[in-house]
Amino acid sequence: MEIVTQSAQPMGGSLLEEVKHFLLEHELVFEGVPEFTSILRTEDDRIIGTGSLDGDVLKYIAVQKSRQGEGLLGQILTTLVTHAFSKGLRNLFVFTKPQNKNLFIPFGFYPIEETSSVLLMENRKNGIAHYVSALKKATDEAVFERGLTVSGLIGTIVVNCNPFTKGHRYLLESSAKKCSLLHVFVVSSDKSAFPTDVRLSLVRQGVADIPNIIVHEASDYLVSVATFPSYFIKEQQSSGQLNSELDIAIFLHYIAPALGITCRFVGTEPLCMTTAAYNRQMQKMLEAKGVRFVEVERLQADESPISASRVRALMGLREFEKLETLVPPTTYAFIMSEQGQAIASQLAMEKV
Questions:
Q1: CATH for 127-351?
Q2: Side-chain-facing half-sphere of 187: CA atoms under 13 Å
């Protein structure tokens, strides 16, 4: 029987519901609409296989059990990888179940980390090793250039900073005072209103006067679409649906030991259920491995926590005069720039 290939970028309507149902039959949790999906159908229009590409992550890959062994997985992967390459994406990840490991190895994917329910693979054999090596090199160079003596606690914080606020500044400054060295990782996935390069720049400008802070781009290995997809679709999640274990396991297995990190700081999270649940899971896993978990009370303004979401809301309302109490001068200057005003206009449109 002939197989019909269908593509969607992105899915919607009845097609989305049909694919979600197929994934559910194969015990795959749907975590947001991907950018591109390849669907295989029989001549009578039944779905027998599907796979999606979300950024640089291959996910939602399933083949009907009665049709497995017919080369359909290879057909799906070829379509997804070809589409990824056409977009200039070369370093790709697979988000799947641990029992599927041997299905993807023949296609050039290598395991990075797995939990009881999730496996992450990539198409570079030593991709994460190269990333960790680059982190160590950047750290050594910064320590030497700044004349730092690293003899006490080494800590870390992972932040999104969409955008960088006075609350973030307070969190980083307070944490740095407790450390000989503080590694700050800025989330890399471009799923935020403020682009990655802007967020990274604003963080670096905002802590430029604190010598023992080293700012890194988190890449695909920390709070990314690959390691923690739930983070980027908070409005659809409950704490029971989160899959943060993989992200924390990668941090503990690779990044913490390479950089000598023994403490991870977070801000208290009264506003976002997703981040709050992530923090509780992180605390449990870190302490089991002997890594300290420290919560820092959020800075407040007008009797409520300073948050990036509050800043974005004011930008969308074009109430810029209220922002100076919430963001550092460097962030405010960017918001008032041409690029910042374009982001404000987009936020305003999203509110309509």
A1: 3.40.50.620
A2: 24
Report the DSSP beta bridge partners of residue 50: 39, 62
What homologous superfamily is domain 4-122 in, according to CATH? Answer: Gcn5-related N-acetyltransferase (GNAT) (3.40.630.30)
Domain borders along the chain are 4-122, 127-351
| Tens-place pLDDT, residues 129-161 | 999 999 999 999 999 999 998 888 999 999 999
pLDDT tens digits, residue range 7-44?
998 888 999 999 999 999 998 878 788 999 999 999 88
Element (H, E) at 215: strand 213-217
* 114 contacts 97 by C-beta, under 8 angstroms: no
pTM for this prediction: 0.87
CA separation for the pair 41, 343 (Å, rounded): 41
Is-cis flag, bond preceding 229, omega within 30?
A: no
Q: Are 120 and 95 in contact (CB under 8 A)?
A: yes
Residue 36, H or E segment: strand 36-41
